[in-house]
Amino acid sequence: VIGYRDARAQVDHVVLTVGEVDRNPEVPLRVHSECLTGEALASQRCDCGDQLKDAMAYIAARGLGVIVYLRGHEGRGIGLVNKLRAYAAQDRGADTVSANLALGLPVDAREYGAVGPILQDLGVSSVQLITNNPDKQRALERQGVPVRSRRPSLGSPTPENAAYLRTKRDVLGHWL
Ligand SMILES: [Zn+2]
Prior knowledge:
This protein is an alpha/beta fold. The protein has helices at 36-39, 48-62, 74-77, 80-91, 96-102, 115-122, 134-142, 162-170; strands at 2-6, 11-18, 27-33, 65-70, 127-130, 147-151. Helix 4 (80-91) crosses helix 5 (96-102). The protein is globular, with a radius of gyration of 16 Å. Bound molecules: zinc ion. Residues 35, 38, 46, 48 line the site of zinc ion.
C-alpha cells in the first residue's frame, strides 16, 4: 500500500499493488472512486463495495495488478454531504442523474489527473482496465495511459440498486 498526496486536489490517495507491476505489460488496473456509504456502511444503493471487492479478488488471483483508490470522488465528485442530499432527492423520485441536477450540482465532477503520474511513478507501462465506464477509459487515454484491454467491473445487481444500475447504463452510457 502506497500513499500519494495530491497537491492540486488537496486529498490523499491510496494505491494497492500486487506483483511486479513495473516489469509486466497489461497490468490489471482498477481506478476506484471512494464511496464511504457503499464500502464502509454497506449501503445497498450502489455497487461500489462489490466492485472494489471484485477488483481485489481478480488482482489477487492474477498475482498482478494495481488499485488506485481515489479520494475526493464521493458521489461522483460532489462530496459526501451532497451525496446524502442527492439520496434524499432520490427518495422523492429522482434518479441518480436528475437528483444532482435538481440540487444544482454536476452529474459527474470527478477528475482523474492523478492517475497518470501515479502509474508513471509505479513504472506501469500499459494496463488492462477494470471498468464499465467509457468516460474513465477515455480520461486515462487522454493522459497517455496505454489501455491494452478492458475487463468488466462486476458488481452485484440487487432490487435496491437496480434503478441506479439502469441509470448508469441508459443515461451515463456504461457498459452494463
Ligand atoms: Zn457507491
